[in-house]
## 1
Amino acid sequence: MRFMVFTDKMVDGVAEIDSQHARMIDILNELYAIVIDKDINASLERVFDKLASYMVQHLDYEEALFAETQYPKADEHRAEHESLRRRIADFREASRGNHDIVLASDLLHFLRQWLNDHMLSADKDACRHFNAHGIH
């Protein structure tokens, strides 16, 4: 059973960004499997660190494209990213040595909502801009 699925409506039209979004969802599904199996002690920090690291790498990639293409909504989009970075840091700090299934579940639900909202609005807009600048 999967927690989140990368669907056609999430495709933004920039292959690297779409691939990264799909990978983030795969890692979310790894975390979900840990929660379902109640295997928190063995794997939570490892998967959480993988997810946090990958998400930051992805946000940095998008922000590099903002600069490369002079994206006019870069400041607004970056503010959304910064908010996510702070939330990830908060979850990461709370998870250190704390193998709480409720914390992991909260993280899953927060990230699913954030990714759905962000991919279907801000990222769609940014990717249209990138496409107009030859980035596909």
## 2
Amino acid sequence: MSQRSDLLRDLADPTMGDDITNSEVADFCKLMAKAIRDEEHLLIVNAFEVVTWETSSSKVKLVVMYLRDEICRGNSIPEVFRSLPDLFDDFFCNKIEEGVGAEALATTFDRLAKYLE
């Protein structure tokens, strides 16, 4: 079974709590923007680790660890977000792709957080 399949199974597990809300995705975006902005030299995978430590949602932790692991496997940042269309719609993924291309991910995550709130 793939890591994505495992993640989707775990996210569907009712013992893990409710589905991830837009508010939780907005919080994730805020944490990512802060991690990227606070440590300019920080690798994106390290930013995901910071978010894993700082979020209280077990489901968000699972998603963030999945994103980090997939990037470590060599997948692009936009590609990894696009692999979870139930959480990250086309608008979100397009903005991430634009942010990567413009080397402005912190600003992109800030804007996405505001959009989701």
